[in-house]
Amino acid sequence: MSEKLLRELIIELLKKRLSKEYKEIKVNPSGSPDIILSNHGFKVAVVQVETETSINSEQAVRWKQMLEDGSRLIIMIPKDEKAKMMELLWDKGMIDRVSVGTYEIAIRMP
């Protein structure tokens, strides 16, 4: 599965799941952030979906920019990349300002 397709799938699943908590969910086709979450016209949080190859120092610069307006930043990453992500956030001084969620694709056959 291509990374682009994986990101699009995760974004659509998140959009559906978050629709119970947020009144306005805007998917940003250009990315950065991927999803903007609002209630009553006020931006509450932004969501960025990352893949195994997009967790790096260059992307961390973009995350820092997303934090500038004071919105909550939620970054979704592959489950197996959590240690790498936490180390990067610590090194960049963002560990206390970013929420990290994980995803995985699991197919279980009987």
Description of the structure:
By secondary structure, this protein is α/β, with parallel strands linked by helices. The chain has one domain. It is built from 3 helices and 5 strands, in the order H-E-E-E-H-E-H-E. The protein has a 5-stranded mixed beta sheet with strand order 1-2-3-4-5, with helices on both faces. The longest helix has 16 residues, at 3-18.
Keywords for this entry:
single chain; 110 residues; alpha/beta; 5-stranded mixed beta sheet; 3 helices; 34% helix; 27% strand
Tally the helices: 3
Overall pLDDT? 94
| Shape assignment | globular
What is the rounded distance between the termini?
23 Å
Rounded to an integer, what's the Rg over CA atoms? 14 Å
**Main sheet attributes: strand count, strand direction, barrel closure:** 5 strands, mixed
Identify low-pLDDT runs: none
Total strands: the figure is 5
Blueprint (SSEs and pairs):
Layout lengths: L2 H16 L5 E4 L7 E5 L2 E8 L7 H11 L4 E7 L3 H10 L6 E6 L7
Parallel strand pairs: 3-4, 4-5
Antiparallel strand pairs: 1-2, 2-3
In short:
With 110 residues, the protein is of the alpha/beta class.
